[in-house]
Amino acid sequence: MPPVDAKAPSQTPAEPILFSFPDSDQLSRNLADFVIKAQNDAISRRNKFTLATSGGSLPKMLAKYLINRDDNALRWDKWEIFFCDERLVPLDHEDSNYYLCHQEFFSKVPELKRSQIHTIDESLLDDPEELSDAYEKQLVQAFAGKEAVRNPVFDLILLGMGPDGHTCSLFPGHELLTEQDRWVAPIEDSPKPPAKRITFTYPVLNHAHRLAFVLAGEGKQEMLSKVLDQPELGLPASRVRPSPPGDIYFFTDNAASKTTKYERSDFKL
Ligand SMILES: O=C(O)[C@H](O)[C@@H](O)[C@H](O)[C@H](O)COP(=O)(O)O
User: Fold this and answer.
1) What residue ranges line ligand 1, CB within 6 angstroms?
2) What is the Cα–Cα distance from 200 to 85, expressed in whole angstroms?
3) Are 48 and 42 in contact (CB under 8 A)?
4) pTM for this model (two decimals)
5) Stretch 3-9: mean pLDDT, rounded?
6) What residue numbers bound the domain in which 152 lies?
7) Which pLDDT belongs to residue 226?
8) Judging by beta carbons within 10 Å of its beta carbon (0-12, 13-18, 19+), is residue 146 exposed, middle or buried?
9) Residue of 24, 27, 31, 57 with the most ligand 1 atoms within 8 Å of its CB, for mutation
10) DSSP of 164-195
């Protein structure tokens, strides 16, 4: 029998860590510190920082305390940015997650170069399969290096959650919840418009180094309780459970976390 390696990664998924802040402003402030810590850890490990972001209310909360800082904490030249999901519309369309992030965040950071932001190929909008494969190739290029990798390991993935418990474009009951091979998959029947999208799959989410849901406001209350208190329901957001050493966090405000019985943790870096 081989000797037991005490440091071998456990197969038990990470338990979510819940932070709750008085309001969404405090949430944004602490989220910025968390992102900077993730950035610094990643740069010291590999000299770059790979981040994937969602759309919805997240980009605005994310940008609030990352832009216009005067402490030189951000090493923008090391950032490589992907989208957890994207709608199949032109990049200057108001439904585009890239467009949203550009308006709320990227356009306010002149140091970020367009080449650091991985967007969908607009010439493939009529062919979701091809477009999805092409986006997956961008992940392969960013993560594989010289050696083939089984799964990409993002330094940080930031997620939202919809009122039905969806995250990325992974919706309740959809066949993509069981996708095990593709890193990126097309979806043409999204219940949330627009119907055609691409999305990261669980093999990507559950291999990330760190993930964080970012949830503010009373509208998130009921679903957050279900996701944290009743994981057996198997809602899409509950299925985000990375294997250690991956960590999963919920950054919430008190309005969102009001009813969950899940234990809150003190926020410290
Ligand atoms: O492209 C999308 O539709 C988003 O990435 C989606 O997954 C979003 O994160 C949730 O729907 C939450 O949206 P809100 O933050 O606006 O509630």
Assistant:
1) 54-58, 85, 97, 160-162, 167-168, 192
2) 6
3) yes
4) 0.95
5) 42
6) 17-253
7) 98
8) exposed
9) 57
10) TS-BTTB-TT-GGGG--S-SEEEES--SSSSS
Name the residue at shortest CA distance from atom 13 of ligand 1.
Answer: 56
Tokens encoding 124: 């493939």
Cβ distance 80 to 142 under 8 Å?
yes
First to last CA, the chain: 39
Instruction: Indicate whether 222 belongs to any domain.
Output: yes
- Domain annotation covers residue 268: no
> Which CATH number belongs to the domain containing residue 67 in this structure?
3.40.50.1360
Q: Which residue matches tokens 């494969």?
A: 133
Q: Which amino acid is at 194?
A: P
Tell me if residue 212 falls in helix, strand or coil. Answer: strand
Return the higher-pLDDT residue of 258 and 145: 258
- In this structure, of 6-15, 49-58, 247-256, the range with the lowest mean pLDDT score is 6-15
